[in-house]
């Protein structure tokens, strides 16, 4: 009987931890306007970067490619090109609402000596969950 109680206690504890470890997805909402576009060649792959700016001044970049590695490489190339004095501090996968559509984004937090910025990369063309 003691083994059965331990099993039930373990299952209860496991379900309790699972319930409270699930987080609500924080969805940031942006209304954006187009700013510029880039085309990059990465060996066999072409990557288009469509750059938008939100009402709050956040940079959102739609990465258009069918190759995951080329897409991620283009994100870092874009940071080096547009923000040469910044270093990538953190990268995280997040959901963002852009003009009413919810998409997965890589959120790169970049920093220089005086400033911290977040740059969002819409990766929906090459990322599927």
Query: SSE order in H/E notation?
Result: HEEEEHEEE
State Rg: 20 Å
Q: Mean pLDDT, rounded to whole units? A: 80
Span of the ends, CA to CA: 43 Å
Range of helix content? 25-40%
Portion in beta strands:
over 45%
Strand order of the largest sheet: 1-5-6-7-4-3-2
Quaternary organisation: single chain
Number of beta strands: 7
- Contiguous low-pLDDT stretches (5 residues minimum) are 6-26
Give the class from helix and strand content and strand pairing: alpha/beta
Could you explain the architecture of this structure?
The protein has 129 residues and is an alpha/beta fold. The protein has one domain. 27% of the residues lie in helices and 47% in strands. The protein is globular. About 16% of the residues have low confidence.
Task: Please outline what is shown here.
It is built from two helices and seven strands; from the N terminus they run H-E-E-E-E-H-E-E-E. It is an alpha/beta fold. The protein is globular and about 40 Å long.
List the helices and strands and how they pair.
Blueprint: H1 2-21, E1 27-30, E2 32-42, E3 45-54, E4 59-64, H2 68-82, E5 87-98, E6 101-111, E7 116-122
Task: Please name the defining characteristics of this protein.
about 25% helix, globular, alpha/beta, about 45% strand, about 130 residues, seven-stranded mixed β-sheet, single chain
């Amino acid at each position: 009987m003691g083994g059965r109680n331990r099993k039930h206690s373990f299952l209860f504890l496991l379900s309790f931890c699972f319930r409270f470890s699930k987080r609500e997805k924080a969805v940031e909402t942006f209304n954006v306007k187009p700013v510029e576009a880039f085309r990059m060649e990465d060996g066999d792959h072409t990557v288009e970067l469509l750059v938008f700016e939100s009402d709050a001044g956040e940079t959102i970049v739609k990465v258009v490619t069918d190759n995951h590695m080329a897409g991620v490489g283009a994100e870092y190339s874009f940071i080096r090109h547009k923000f040469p004095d910044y270093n990538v501090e953190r990268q995280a996968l997040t959901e963002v609402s852009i003009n009413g559509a919810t998409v997965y984004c890589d959120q790169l937090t970049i920093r220089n000596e005086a400033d911290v910025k977040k740059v969002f990369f819409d990766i929906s063309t090459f990322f599927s969950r």
